[in-house]
Queue: 2 jobs
Job 1
Amino acid sequence: MTEQTTFHKDTWELYKSLEMSKQLTSGPTLAELADDHPEVVAMSSDLSKPTGLWPFAKAYPDRFFNFGLAEKNMVTAAAGLASTGKVPFVSTYASFLGVLAAENIRTAVAYPNLNVRLIGTHTGIAMGFYGTSHHATEDISITRAMANMTVISPADGVALSEMIKESVESYEGPIYFRVSRGREEPVYEKGERVQNRIGKANILRDGSDLTIIACGIEVLQALRAADQLSEKGIEARVIDMHTIKPMDEQAVLEAAQDTGAVLTVEEHNIMGGLGSAVSEVLMESGVPCKFKRHGFYDENSLIGKPYYLYKHYKLDADGIASVAQEFLNK
Amino acid sequence: MTETTSIPKEKIDLIKEKAKMSRLETIRMISMAKSGHYGSSFSSSEIFATLYYHVMNYDPENPRWKSRDRFVMGKGHSAVGVYSILADVGFFPKEELDTYTQLGSAFGDHPDMNKIKGIDFGSGSIGHGLSVGVGMSLGARLDNEDYRSFILMGDGELQEGQVWEAAMSAANFKLGNLVAIVDNNKVTVDGNTAELMGIEPIKDKWESFGWNVIEIDGHDVETLVDTFDNLPAADSDVPTAIICDTVAGKGVSFMEHGYEWHVANLGEDDIKRAIEEIEGGQ
């Protein structure tokens, strides 16, 4: 059993939070790639430590640019750098990247189809009591509406690291990575075999009664919810749909055909996010199935410690299991 | 400003001639489209011509040449004034300009780097240009290249907050290879800049952000040439802002200073008059 960190209620002081943010692996991963890939540079807006870029910044100070509190300038400058052949990784809180700098992402990064990699951290309600301004429950919707943009919400640090590597070694075009606070418990083991490939969903558990499609921090909670459901005789397939765009449509359609019921779970407004993306695939396919989106129901999230918030919004394992049971009328 | 340049008179005449060509082509293209940005193209004509016929290093045969100087228009709505120059220097055949604004054309009211050879970065959303330049100049530093990034901005553009984020960062990153050119034509869509949202004192603002600031007449080719010839070295530590005093609609008497001509369509008589005035101009 891994250490309970995701929803631990006593550890929200900032300094402890930094120590516990082990899943924010972008910095170490980029530092590892740096020697072989001189084109990799990184930038942050005064948040290189909380976003996990710091190990790269420390090891390669000449290739790290701190833009201060100026996200729009940072994103557009990243586009300028990319136009000279660099692959810039830009990281700050998702509320200030995917939301605040949305127009810059659209106009300067997505439209020219540049190799800028945006990493929005502390998504959804991970910032808890910092307040609704710091919550990001719209960023999937915003970025996925941009042509050319790939949108990825990895389940943990291993997944983030694997897909960052792929993005440097073999992927062209802009990517918006959406990652949580880094203190979530891991889903994947670090190993030789690549487990997360951009655009290919991971089926983590099989079941015949229901499919739960989740992304990001909700993947592990969905797995735990499936365990609870299993005890009640409901067998749930669990899919980690880390790449929301382009979506692995085959995984969605097979799930609908095989299990007849699909529940999406995301730390995002149900409008425009993972659930919407899955519903688009389902509706256009004509494959009949029961369907429900779970997340924030077009509401602004409350202030509170994340421990309580995830429970309140039924985005922890217990909550997801109860939503699933209600959905199946069981 | 006194003439200190040693550049041959033929070169100065050529630049003036090309500025004239840019204005005439602008009239021709906008007449085809029935709408476009005259005023702010004309205020930049000498700047465009000086950059492309004297200042910048580029290779029309190899538009993405790594070591080329970069030019970005923060005020992308002046693109129509540059298209004819890009064609003239050889980036693409001049006939392609005839497609201006037509369905599927590469040439719209704002420049598109994806579609037009010679456009180093697209624009249209006012306020991005200088940030792009910051990124390009950082790229030059990382690659030990000595090219410069020239960013043309309108005075109205200085109302965008992002410009000052970029200005701050350029000084902080010591980007002496970055040159901001402010086309201070003093009008925006709705009226005169000073009345709408004053931006003065421009020089003090740039200086307080840590920039080397030069104020010149933006229509005086000799002065433009001299200024660009004497820029601080690209490997110096302080970015340079050249504030060009210009006239919106310059070269056509009934357009000069008028914000009404920011976006407009001319009738046949007006077109004739405008062409005559431009051809007869300096």
Job 2
Amino acid sequence: MSEHEVTVTVDGSAERATVEARRLLVHALREEWGYTQPNVGCESGKCGACTVEMDGDVVKSCCVLAVQADGSEVTTVGGVDGAPEGLAEVDAGDPRATPAGDNDEFGPVQRSFHEEHGLQCGYCTPGMVLRARDLLADIPDPSREEIREGLKGNVCRCTGYENVVDAVEAAAAKLEPIETDGGTAGQADTVDGGAPTGGDD
Amino acid sequence: MIPPQFDYERPTSLDAALDAVAPPDAVPLAGGHDLIPMLKARSVSPGTVVDLGGLDELRGVERVADEGDTTTEQLSVGALTTDADLLDAAPTGADALLDATRAVGDAQIRNRGTVGGNLAAAHPASDIPAATLAADATLHLVGPDGDREVSAEGFATGDHETVRASDELLTRISVPLAPDAGSAYARKTHPSTGYAAVGVAARLRVVDGVVIGPRVAAVGLCDAPTRLAAVEDRLAGADAGAPVEAVESATTRAGDGVDAPVREDHIVSADQRRALLPKYAEQAVSEALARAVGREGVVA
């Protein structure tokens, strides 16, 4: 067996550890460095509870060795704030919106999960929020079908997904693409119309 | 679920990677979505895991003109190109490959999973091998004795079995891009695994209103990707002007001539897979035909 010195920037902080080669990134995050928002769920790459951003891409941290993340930038849900990349919040004046001052450290996606009750036990929520942000960055105004397809890698055993889809729709309504010269922020990651949707595969 | 102990190496050149995978107990690691779950389940126990992530030379997608025939091109996909990067590149003329890549796992998995890793892992229900088989792609291997090419047809031999020797690495995949060909992939997702219960890729050309050179391949059906000869035979020469009839008559008995054992598990039986096959063959062939008709006449 081999042990390796790794340095990973997690939510902006440089974290170091000596890890066995077999150490999974999710275990290093939780147990070496105390970032407990990525959860350990199915441990087989299906449920998405361990989702983090690694160098800008959402990944399942139970399917990455900690040593593979050496030199990477990892963002957990605790490290995100504000709107997803390429989007800005519009002041929609939603009367149901969380009052100012309550949860104002949360960005629009987290607040929408709160307001629409897009969770019950909350175990899947860190992964759901990170993937929802990533989805909205790709497709700023997704259909319900695109949301379901887009979240297929994140399993929720409580909600039946209705409120999760509501939450992502509500977040989309709070956001608009930032005008750029290139205008590519809204490029769609289209989905296979032939595949059945639903989050339980 | 903790993997067993192993050593880890991350070579930064192809030569160093070949040295690292030379010992019989060394295994290459690409995107990790086949190997790492197997390590956690302890169904494999390698001495050394050789992370190929440092081999930037094996990433990227480019179009290459065919030697000797300037009217056709090959799409050259570096083996370590992630599924997401292939989809972002969105090369035209490789629709079935893009359809199949889009069907892989989910967004997080496509961000890590690689095209070459998918093929080399040879999961029997993986999507991409259907597209490479239908496209008559070529897989490029390098080993201690040099390079060799293997057709997609000859690559996978069974469940997680290929002709790749343990000291060889898959470096890139060449996919022919006939500009007037149409291709598509359709699948029934397995309700438990998320892989294909059955998946079918089809590729064909339409010349003077007639279907030419159809290739149709299924995954999830048998342990290795399987050509659907009955569909190909009935489709060749069919009238593209009557696509509904042509496709239906070609795909109704899509499983005829499939001699290898059909897979089954406690959720999807072999009979169900055979019963699902015509519908997904029909979807794939219909879409491939529509795309080919859309491209007919592109090349004078």
